[in-house]
Amino acid sequence: MIKQGLELKQTQKLSPLQIQTIKLIELPIQELEQRIRTELEENPVLDDDHPVESRDDDDDEPKDISIDELDADDPIPSYRLKVNNYGKDERPEYNTFSVKESFTQSLLDQLGFRHLSQHEKDVATFIIGSLDEDGYLRRDIDSLVDDLAFRAGIQTDGEEVLRMLKIIQEFDPAGVGARDLQECLLLQIRTLKRTPDTENAERILRDYFNEFTSKHFQKILSRSGMSQEELKAALGKILKLNPSPGGQIDDSYTEQAQQIVPDFVLDLVDGELKLSMPRFSIPELRVNKKYADLLLEAKGSGERAQREAATFVKQKLDSAKWFVEALKQRHNTLESTVKAIVEYQHDYFLDGDEANLKPMVLKDIAEMTGFDISTISRVVNSKYIETHFGIYPLKYFFSEGLENKEGEEVSTRELKKALQELVDAEDKHRPLTDDQLVTEMGKRGYNVARRTIAKYRDQLGIPKARLRKEL
After folding, report:
1. Cα–chain-centroid distance for residue 469?
2. CA pair distance 146, 141, nearest whole angstrom
């Protein structure tokens, strides 16, 4: 039997301004600058030309007005709206911080110096684009041949792909284009000066790689005929190699070299923390007077064309109003959030000592600011702060906590730091097991379970005790 009835539900619909603000809050300053430029291109009533400064109190000069005063029916002399993010002083110049050269671009530049046909360069370029962030080629040759045909329209064969790959493997950084760790290390060791130590290192990587990764040194000694001193010297060469050659050059999230521009700058002045938000890359916005005049001319007109033009301009004016107001709300939201973070972590920001970094989660800052947790998450995502002891992503200051023996809550970052110090100081001939690390952490006043030690060790990239053993 089908029943019909009415049900009353209350739903919340976001306004265009709220939607606009949410989207802007997520953007770091570089993407925000690009977003503003896109808006300037798409909305003809917006103009980023700097208005002429009025001299003294010249009444003939048009005055700036608040965006809230904008009304299509009011005869305003000049529809000029500005985001007042700056004082009268010139906007300060802040340094940008390079995040290294683009990995892909570096390889393409090296490819350009090789005497190859255009077809060969196209194949090599596709291979370079197929490398992962560590610089490895995780695809097999046959798959690359198929991809070149179906995705790039390039007809080739396995022999040519392999030949181009061998050329790429000659590029810097050494080890790039390897298909596995063994090949990566062998490519690097072969670039070193030929000595007995490097030759023994190459022999270990070529003939005893499984024994090497398992740290079965006695097997290598018995099977290779090396002395313990020769093995130790060869291992010293291998341990200096880089298992992730692509990590030397960062691609970030675009194919071009990225720069970190801090969204916030925190200075320590006479023992006081001073937070600022450099906005030098954001243009001032005002409504283009030409379109505002068009709206005025159409007012009261009976002509259809002028009425349609007025409707178009009014829609664009509303869009401009929402955009500029959203920029203001973004500024206020980010400023309030980071002020709360600085207040919460005040002792840490004074000297950068991780021991003073308190456990902090998104909920803590949400309660301090009154914003939703989702808003706090958007604020801290992809944003950076410059302090007197370094540049950090905002996410860095958030961590869970555990209690020490005194019942005080300590951050997981403090625990990880203590764990790393224990491993760094251990006797590498007899490295500490996870159970022994639990005991040592307990001596430092940290109550940590064995499974927690194992989790933190994995997160820090610390191998198990057996794999940390040295001769």
Report:
1. 35
2. 9
Is the N-terminal amide bond of 173 cis, ω within 30° of 0? yes
Strand pairing of 384-387 and 390-393? antiparallel
Phi, psi of 384 (to 5 degrees): -125, 150
Q: What is the mean pLDDT of residues 457-461?
A: 82
Determine the average pLDDT of the residues in 187-209. 90
Q: What angle do CA 134, 431, 212 make, to 5 degrees?
A: 50
Dist CA 465 CA 436 (whole Å): 10
Q: Please state, in angstroms and as integers, the Cα–Cα distance from residue 154 to each residue in 124, 145, 299, following that order.
A: 11, 9, 60
Measured between alpha carbons, how far is residue 118 from residues 106, 124, 336 in Å? 19, 10, 55
- The mean per-residue pLDDT over the stretch 144-161 comes to 86
Task: With a cut of 70, say whether residue 286 has pLDDT above it.
Answer: no
**Cis amide linkage into residue 62, ω under 30° from 0:** no
Single out the residue of 328, 324, 326 nearest to residue 81, CA to CA. Answer: 324
CB-based contacts of 253, cutoff 8 Å, min separation 6:
none
Token pair 């906590």 in the structure block, residue: 401
Name the pLDDT band for 285 (thresholds 50, 70, 90).
Answer: low
Alpha-carbon distance of 227 to 200, in angstroms, equals 11
Long-range pairs for 344-352: beta carbons < 8 A, 24 or more residues apart: 344/368, 345/397, 346/273, 348/397, 349/266, 349/268, 349/273, 349/387, 350/268, 350/271, 350/273, 351/389, 352/387, 352/388, 352/389, 352/390
> Three-state SS for 359?
coil
AA letter at 251: D
What is the band of 381 on the pLDDT scale with cuts at 50, 70, 90? confident
SS3 (DSSP) at 75: coil
Q: Kindly indicate whether the domain formed by 404-468 is annotated with CATH number 1.10.10.60.
A: yes
Average pLDDT value for residue range 283-298: 66
Tens digit of each residue's pLDDT (9 = 90 or more) over 389-398: 888 888 888 8
The better pLDDT of the pair 408, 222 is held by 222
Type and span of the H or E element at 402: strand 401-403
Query: Which pLDDT score is estimated for 6?
Result: 58
Single-letter residue type at 379: V
* Biggest CA-to-CA distance, the chain: 101
What is the pLDDT, as a whole number, of residue 162? 93
> Where do the structural domains in the chain lie, given as residue ranges?
15-51+60-98+258-398, 103-248, 404-468
Average pLDDT over residues 255-264: 63
Q: What is the mean predicted confidence (pLDDT) over 235-256?
A: 66
